[in-house]
From TrEMBL:
GO terms of molecular function: DNA binding; transposase activity
Name under which the protein is recorded: IS110 family transposase
Domain of life of the organism encoding this protein: Bacteria
Organism: Novacetimonas pomaceti
Location of the Transposase IS116/IS110/IS902 C-terminal domain: 208-289
């Protein structure tokens, strides 16, 4: 374990409870951690032994307001579980937001140690909301959903390739691959249904989402996997997290077009086709779509608005734990 200490005027003993923010830069092999406001840093191996050493370095967990890190696929998962198990509030930061914060504060250098210090400062100054850690069953659901998504991309690529093939052998191979994919998708869907059925709470959340016209079981599973925070946020937060909140550009008398940016692209992809279906068969959302088109809005803008309505509706229904019912005419 490598320690780098930077003394400050105030000792840790003088700090009020839960006033410390830890920033952690996560990589495959190492964890670089920094403590704010003290400024001391440490590097440990990204192993269970290294994580134990990190917990010793952190010390009194009651003094820790939050630990801030960027999600790094499988590399942060075990660390996340270890920290959550001892009751430390965790904040996962979008890498783009973290980098913009670093640029805004003039921290242009990029090393693991600098990133850890930047994440600690980001958490201390902006006070981001800590989110519950995914359970083991949520992690398994996310793996199954990601596997299905990969197969569907493979299916689209194979279908497109089949249209251009002229050699019989290659055509047979492509058709065989398509049959393989269909069988694997069926198997994954069955495994996903069985997994969700193991957890009554997760099963209920799936049923609530699937009750919304336009959102089938497949989309419900995708939302549960890719946006587990649904039902625990404000309306605007849900739209922002999905990257569906309109960003307005205005200066003086000039007003530019609003647009969407950032957020979870994977959620927007999951909602696109359901939005197309919803604007035809969900009477509430059909009225919204028709009203926007009547105002001269482009179809893509109207569809984006429907996607936003869907994620806000999903968040509200999950928060209230009730199935969708149509509004009175």
């Amino acid at each position: 374990m490598e320690k780098m200490t930077h003394p400050v005027a105030a000792s840790k003993a003088e700090l009020p409870p839960a006033s410390i923010t830890i920033g952690i830069d996560v990589s495959k092999d190492h964890l670089d951690a920094a403590r704010h406001p003290a400024g001391d840093t440490v590097r440990v191996a990204n192993t269970r032994k290294g994580q134990t050493a990190l917990l010793r370095w952190i010390g009194d967990i009651k003094a820790v307001a939050r630990v801030v890190f960027e999600p790094t696929g499988p590399y942060h998962r075990i660390l996340e579980e270890r920290l959550a198990a001892v009751g430390i509030p965790l904040v996962k930061v979008n890498p783009r937001q973290a980098r913009r914060f670093a640029e805004a504060t003039g921290k242009l250098a990029k090393t693991d140690r600098v990133d850890a210090l930047m994440l600690a400062r980001y958490g201390a100054l902006l006070d981001p909301v800590a989110r519950p850690v995914r359970t083991d069953i949520q992690n398994r659901l996310a793996e199954l959903v990601a596997a299905r998504r990969s197969l569907m991309r493979d299916r689209t690529a194979t279908l497109n390739r089949l249209k251009t093939l002229t050699i019989g052998l290659l055509q047979r191979h492509a058709r065989h691959r398509l049959r393989q994919i269909e069988a694997q998708v069926t198997s994954l869907d069955a495994a996903t249904d069985a997994l969700v059925a193991e957890d009554a709470h997760l099963s209920r959340r799936r049923d609530v989402l699937a009750s919304i016209p336009g959102l089938g079981t497949v989309t419900a599973h995708a939302l549960l996997a890719d946006m587990p925070e649904l039902g625990m946020m404000e309306e605007g937060q849900a739209a922002s997290l999905a990257g569906l909140a309109p960003i307005t550009r205005q200066s003086g008398t000039w007003r530019g077009r609003s647009f969407i940016q950032g957020g979870r692209a994977i959620v927007r992809q999951a909602l696109y086709m359901p939005a197309i279906v919803a604007m035809r068969f969900n009477p509430d959302l059909k009225r919204v779509y028709d009203r926007l088109i009547a105002k001269g809005k482009h179809a893509k803008i109207a569809i984006t608005a429907i996607m936003r309505k869907l994620v806000v509706l999903a968040n509200a229904l999950l928060h209230k734990d009730r199935l969708w019912t149509p509004k009175a005419a």
